[in-house]
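Co-fold these.
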Amino acid sequence: MQISFSAPSTTSGGALIVAALAGGAFTASAAEADRMAGGALKRALEVSRFSGKSGQSLEILAPSAVKASRIILVGLGAVEELDGLRAEQIAADVVARLLACGEKSVHFAIDRPRGLKLGDAELAAHLAMGVELRAYSFDKYRTRQLEERAATVKKVSIGTKDVAGARKIWREFAAVAEGICLARDLVNEPPNVLFPAEFARRTKKLTALGLKVEVLGAAQMKKLGFGALLGVAQGSAHEPQLVVMQWLGARNRKAPPIALVGKGVCFDSGGLSLKPAASMMGMKGDMGGAAAVTGTMHALAARKARVNAIGVIGLVENMPSGTAQRPDDVVTSLSGQTVEVLNTDAEGRLVLADALTYTQRRFKPRLLIDLATLTGAIMVSLGAEHAGLFANDDNLAAQLAQAGKQEGELVWRMPLSPNYDKLLKSKIADMKNIGSGPHAGAITAAQFLQRFITDKQSWAHLDIAGVAWQDGEQKSLAPSWGVGWGVRILNRLSKDHYEV
Ligand code: BES
Ligand code: MN
Ligand code: ZN
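Predicted complex below.
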């Protein structure tokens, strides 16, 4: 799909999108379109429930005097409530209904209402973002696309009074959208295709954007002492990989970087602590943290962000086999601490432990954020609305909460404390990889990670098990199973606080 910006026009062909405010008052373009249509919009409105609320729309097939094929009147709602995210959702909803209905081109003639916080250029760029995110689909494995499902819309133009300004903002937004769609692709790929080496190969493509990408294999990790990560990987036919991505975009390339660490379990069968069949379904997405980190690195590099950022992802497959790690095994992590592995399905924390140690030792980052589809327990707490946020730094936690709100990737802070940490006591090693008893599963997982964070390191952990993919109703800005969650919040955090 091709997205462009132009002066607003009510005389374009294809679908014409115009807007009304809460209460039903037409904006100038809507009034103009109605006049051209001989009052057909107003008449349609009178026999409808349309009142201009955001989320509402009213469609008429255009009468012959109008060049457009159809006119869609969308509700913008109350001006005070119309922010960038709402604008994106409005555009996404419109595009969703037009995408496969035979329409080939769409023009948005949505005038900026008076009193709107967003400027003309911003409004236009957010509309474009909504279109782009909603137009995503993952169809590469369909050899027979249903005729009536094939997308027909090829061109979308966004009308704005500030074409140059909109193009400038859109360049940045488009970089972020690319990162999100990359993350979605990675999550959606089946696990027979996207095993660790293939994931690593895909990250190598980011070198085209100016990122440095290194890949460590099993032999190198063994030499360095990645005992926890390698224990998880040892039951699989696929070699584990550690990928280190570096984007040095700050004026001072030596300035301490922000570091992002992702859990990349390309498939989580549970290992010998095998998952039941129904719980194993979807476990191709257990690399959602790694996908978010990769997508964010793409976004930062593609928009040439003035930040030094490191992305580290631990890629493994967790499988049962004759060589698999056993419940009762004790492994020595890269940090030197020993772990009694009592449940091989609590594997993500083992992978992260070594990736976190490696990242801190090598890069001494100013802040460290890990993302992981770590526990089913976080879904019990927060469902699919919020990711769980754990942090040892109130400032970083507040920055993430704010960034998440703005970008529509909500987080909810959860506690850490010594009393939870006690639940990790092992009979024979420094710790065990599960808590004691069935409670506080997401917290004990976070406490486990914290044991691998040095005292002075500013750190946050995002448990994204509930938000990385979606089985039920799809979000209006995320039309596929893989959500691509994490790219927006991390990109926003960087942009608002760590770029110079
Ligand atoms: N990848 C899972 C967590 C998960 C579960 C993500 C459901 C998304 C949906 C993780 O590796 C896991 O299996 N965690 C266990 C931990 C337990 C054994 C302590 C869990 O949550 O049951
Ligand atoms: Mn598991
Ligand atoms: Zn897992």
